[in-house]
Amino acid sequence: MSTLIHLPVFGLVLTLGAYLVAYWLYHRLGRPGVLSPVLVTVAIVATVLELTGLPYAVYLEQVSLLTMLLGPATVALALPLLRNGRALAGSAPAVIAALVAGGVFSIAITVGLLQLFGVGDDVLLAALPRSVTSPVGLSIAEALHASVPLAIVLTMVSGVLGAAFGPALLSLARVRDERARGFAIGLTSHGIGTSRVLAESTVAGGWSSAAMVMNALVMTIVLPIVAALATG
Amino acid sequence: MSRAALLPPVLLGLVVLLLAQMVGLAASALWGIPVPGVVLGILVLVLLGMLRPTRAVVRAAEPAATPLLAHLQLLFVPPCVGIILELQTLAENALPLALAVGGSFLVPLIVSGMVLQALLRRQDRRRGAEAPA
């Protein structure tokens, strides 16, 4: 057993295998938002690591191939932004207003609530990049010297919330415009939410991915300043 | 273009993405720009895509970008699994974190959706009024 789990390919086989199972399950059960493939995969991999006693650091080394692909995959986010650039540029004032409104509330509520509870600075810093798409959120968390896993998991939770409840909540608030629905979900729930609204319509999907990328760009500049102010 | 057609499209696309990332990382390191290199890489690619002579470069990236973006989530599994090292922090701060994440998800979702819908409607009406004339 010990030789098996220390084979250099073990981590990769485990991760890809778990992802395929989670992916199949997700599509088989009619894409329920709470069963987002990434969450299920993480749960399976984490359980296997706990059971076999394979240290996280060793696992991370085994899957360095996946970590390496994160860079080019993040850069590829430019494409959805370019694809929807024309429509967004035509409505620039409305888009900027929505982006600012969403960003202000997101930061104010996160900082306000966590400080109200007197949570430590390390947790606050990890919670800040929450609404930013994970590849960029990861870089921001690193720049803030926050716990990267904690930041990524909170980001994932946000994405899953958006995929599971976002469309219904927006309908409750009578937001029916496809563009506004897509944008609001992309802004708060990034990639996971985007893949959910893509099933709704391509227009909503386009606005969602554009909102996700623009939010990431803005937050890269804003969050370090907020972090400096909030942790003093 | 005909020369590029001979190259394997996915590999060519991957090289384009990696080059954009490298330019971004290099710029961030060389000039001490406080923005992560990958974010600068996104900007490099957006810029190339907006300028007519370089638009083909971004098109060449597509065959690699599409599968990478479709399974972007898979790439986050390794950092996410690191949560097993942070379970205690997570448990100690469960309530405030749940409220902060829930609240900072719900309010911006509704606010940005309503703001954008209202503004887009006004814009559409104005354009609709202009168009027939």
List keywords for this structure.
heterodimer, A: mainly alpha, B: 133 residues, mainly alpha, 2 domains, 78% helix, 0% strand, extended
Topology overview:
The complex is a heterodimer of chains A (232) and B (133).
Chain A lengths: L1 H4 L4 H19 L8 H16 L3 H7 L1 H12 L2 H6 L1 H6 L1 H25 L4 H7 L6 H10 L4 H25 L5 H21 L3 H30 L1
Helix pairs in contact in A: 2-3, 8-13, 9-11, 10-11, 10-13, 11-12, 12-13
Chain B lengths: L8 H22 L6 H14 L4 H16 L1 H4 L1 H5 L5 H6 L1 H37 L3
Helix pairs in contact in B: 1-2, 1-3, 2-3
Could you describe the 3D structure shown?
The complex is a heterodimer of chains A (232) and B (133). By secondary structure, chain A is mainly alpha-helical. Chain A folds into two domains: 2-71, no CATH class; 78-231, no CATH class. Chain A has helices spanning 2-5, 10-28, 37-52, 56-62, 64-75, 78-83, 85-90, 92-116, 121-127, 134-143, 148-172, 178-198, 202-231. Chain B is mainly α. Chain B contains seven helices and no strands. Chain B has helices spanning 9-30, 37-50, 55-70, 72-75, 77-81, 87-92, 94-130. In chain B, 36% of the residues are buried. The interface between A and B is large, with 104 and 72 residues.
Can you describe this structure in just a few lines?
The complex is a heterodimer of chains A (232) and B (133). With 232 residues, chain A is an all-alpha fold.
